[in-house]
Amino acid sequence: MDGKQIFLGNYYYSYTILALFIVSESILFRCSYELNEYENRHCFH
To answer: Which of 17, 39, 41, 43 is the most core-located residue (most Cβ within 10 A)?
Structure first.
């Protein structure tokens, strides 16, 4: 692997981690919100 492939690999890896973090945070936020609104019906089927 040359430097460009390594750079692109780290770039996509960091953005994948960032996207997973944002998705998990939004799911946790929605579940905690729905826990108050709907007794958590939509989170844990």
So the answer is: 43
